[in-house]
Every structure is written in structure tokens, then in C-alpha cells.
Amino acid sequence: MNDKRNFSRRNFIGISGVASAGLAFSSSPLIAQSVVNGDSNSGKKYKIGIVGCGNRSKNIIGALNSVPEIEISALCDIVEHKMGLRAALIKNGHKPRFYTDMHQMFKQDDLDAIAVITPNYTHREYVIAALEAGKHVFCEKPMALTVADCNLMIDAVKRTHKSLQIGTQRRHSSDYKMLVENIRTKINGKILYSDLFDYRGDWRAPEADEYPAGVGYWRLDQSKSGGVVYEMGAHIIDVNNWIFDSEPVSVSSIQGINNLSLRKRDSMDHAGVLVRYANDALMNYGSNVYNYGAAAADTFFGVNGSVQMGSGQISIKYGNPKGVAQQGLVIPKPELISLPGGNPEGEGVIQELKHFALVLAGKEKAYPDGYIARQTVQICEASVRSAKERREIDVKELG
Ligand SMILES: NC(=O)c1ccc[n+]([C@@H]2O[C@H](COP(=O)([O-])OP(=O)(O)OC[C@H]3O[C@@H](n4cnc5c(N)ncnc54)[C@H](O)[C@@H]3O)[C@@H](O)[C@H]2O)c1
């Protein structure tokens, strides 16, 4: 079978198979196993080189300070002064080597892995180059801008026998694991529909010395970032794929640029996205990066109840109301479950990198891997094409 179309692959560690067709979330937890504490690889240290010392690298380096199994041995950025700034964040006193050319860094023989933390449009090229240089790779979300690029990256993983893990930290965060576990174990029957959104202010305005002269901010360029669905939506869409446990089939979307008063851009600043999955469940995602909305809450509606996550808690409404409150129906009080708290994104980043350490030790498989991350790119790419061509897109059209 052609692996490029094998979207149902379920061979990653810690994920037990559940028939997608029924989505009957009975007792199967379907939770990724990250290592929370303890000796994950018998004291061996793995050396990593980071390409891209921009804003995101601060979080990655901060998280790696809590992952003693991985040592940051090299940094690379085309803007030299950023490497010094990031090296100063490394807490174990280790001094990484600096490179302005990633290919020179990839030649560093003692490097076990590369973290690609560069703009979205570079991921395909840089990841494949790192794999070809014999390194395992951690790459920030989104995996790439197109399904075709994801396929090339998956081919490179197969060719090189190296691992590729995509940085979608919610897969490893305690809060999101709790969400998935509650949906799986407490709501009997199929999840039919989800209502998800991101509303926030515009993207960070970079400092004047962050990019080489004449290079604009990639997030404002649609061809380099993919716009709001790739940049914001990739996170909750990935969670939705995890929860629905089914392949996206078709996508309809309207997107545009509403607030031209913010900054000059051609990247989409708002979107509405509807996705039909193979099991007939429907995802409804909305977002904008020009203004704040109501408190973010994501809701998953099932045949026999609904689960909402937001404001630091999970709220579960059981049952299947056959009427409305005004007609005398007693609406049961929801079960409220506090989330572990803290910073779910930050904790998830530490856990995803601890998981990556186990991948380097050969004890775990990359999670999420390219096959899983490609599903999100299918939705992102199809959404942009749908908005442009004003029609529903079958994801098979994307290759
Ligand atoms: N997982 C998350 O929550 C999360 C959050 C923020 C960003 N991201 C992702 O991280 C990636 C980077 O985002 P960012 O906010 O750090 O962007 P950024 O613009 O702040 O940083 C990107 C850096 O890459 C460098 N770079 C570009 N080309 C290079 C090359 N050829 N060699 C070396 N360095 C190069 C740039 O000089 C810049 O310093 C994006 O893919 C973004 O989507 C993920």
C-alpha cells in the first residue's frame, strides 16, 4: 500500500486502536504516554542543534533546561546576534557552538538531533536536509505548508531511517490528555460535532534587528506562513484530529483580511473552517488575530453528552436532552473537573521534549509523527484552497 495515503496508521507508542467508524469511546484511553519524571534513558545525554533562534526558540530552550537528557550543543541563525541571546538562556552552563549556515552545523558529527524552529515555509527543506545529514529531527508545527511537502518529508524519514517528531505540545500536555481521557471514558457514543475557536490580538511585532535587512516578517506573508489557520489553528485542529480519531475528508472555508489598520499584510487574519471527517463527525473552527473574543472554550458534542474545555476546567454535560428548559426539561448540572493548572502549553513543551529524548534513546516512536501531523496540514491547506476557490475541497485533491 502507498503509505502516502495510509492516513489511518496507528503504530505510534501509547495509542491503542479504536475503530474510527463508530467512534464509540468506551474504555480505551488513547492517551500518548510521555515520561513525566524519572530516569528515561540511563543517564546518556543526546546532543541537539537548534536551527532558528527566534521567538519560539526561547520556549524550546527554556523547556530543554528541564530535560537533562538533551544538551544544546549548537545554535544556528542567519542573524548572528540572536545566537548569543539564546545561548544565555541555557542553564546548565554548556556553551553551544554557533553557525550561520545550517549545513555546516549538520556536519557536526556528534549531533544526534536537530530542532527546526524556523518559519513555516522553510520546514520541508530544512527537515529533509537534517534527516539526510543523518540526524533525528524535532520540527515545530505546522509540519509544512502543503501535503505534498509533508509527503516528501515522510519519504525522507523512510529513506534515512531517522525519526521526525512535530512540535504540537498539546499532545503531551496534562490538560489536553485529561480532556481526551474524559471524552473517551465518560461520554458514551459518538462525538458528532466540535466547536472550536481562537480569538486574539495580532501577532507580535518583531524588533527592528530581528531579520536581515530587507527581509519582512514572514507571518504577514501568506505564502510564508499560510495565515491564521496554519499559525493558530494548527494546535486545536491537531487536538480535534486526536479526539475524532478519524481522517479529514473535505473542507469548506471562508478566510480573509479584515483589519488592514493593524499592519500591512497579505496573510489571512480570520477564518471560518468546516471539516467533515470519515466518520461523518463535523469540526467547526473559527479564528481571528485582530481582536479578542469571549473566553476561549472548545466544545465537543456527542450523541450522549458534551464536553467543554475552557477557563481552567473541563465541564461535562451528560445526557441527550429531548426538549428545552422552557418546556419543563430539567437540565442536569454539569460535572466540573479542574485542570492540573499551570501553563498547559509550557508543561506540554517539556513533556514533548522528554518524549523526544526517549525517541533519541530508541525507546519510543516520534509522537506526533509525520503521518499524524500531515492530517492537520491537510485541513490547513484545504481550507486556504477552499477560501480561494470558493468551493468545498476533498482532501484527496491535495495528494
Ligand atoms: N508550538 C508552538 O506553540 C509555537 C509557537 C510559536 C511558534 N511556533 C512555530 O515556530 C516556528 C518559528 O516561529 P518564531 O515565532 O520563532 O519565528 P521567528 O521569526 O521569531 O524566528 C524564526 C527564526 O528563524 C531564523 N531563520 C530563518 N531562516 C533561517 C536559516 N536558513 N538558518 C538559520 N536560521 C534561520 C530567523 O532568522 C529567525 O530568527 C514557526 O514554524 C512557528 O509556527 C510554534
What characteristics describe this protein?
single chain, 399 residues, alpha/beta, Rossmann fold, Dihydrodipicolinate Reductase, domain 2, 9-stranded mixed β-sheet, 10 helices, 22% strand, binds nicotinamide-adenine-dinucleotide
Short note summarizing the structure:
This protein has 399 residues and is α/β, with parallel strands linked by helices. The protein has helices spanning 55-64, 81-87, 102-106, 123-132, 147-160, 174-186, 222-225, 228-244, 344-360, 370-389; strands at residues 46-51, 70-76, 97-99, 113-116, 136-140, 164-167, 191-199, 248-256, 270-277, 282-288, 297-302, 305-310, 313-318, 335-338, 393-394.
| Count of discrete alpha- or pi-helical segments spanning 4 or more residues | 10
Ends: how far apart? 15 Å
Unreliable parts? 1-40
Bound molecules: nicotinamide-adenine-dinucleotide
User: Roughly how many Å is the radius of gyration?
Assistant: 21 Å
> What is the ordering of alpha helices and beta strands?
EHEHEHEHEHEHEHHEEEEEEEHHE
CATH class designation of the largest domain: Alpha Beta
Q: Which strands sit side by side, in order, in the main sheet?
A: 14-13-12-11-7-10-9-8-15
Quick check: average pLDDT? 88
CATH architecture of the largest domain: 2-Layer Sandwich
Biggest beta-sheet profile: 9 strands, mixed
**Percent in strands:** 15-25%
The structure class reads alpha/beta
State the domain count.
2
What oligomerization state is this entry in? single chain
Care to count the β-strands? 15
The CATH topology of the largest domain turns out to be: Dihydrodipicolinate Reductase, domain 2
Structural shape: globular
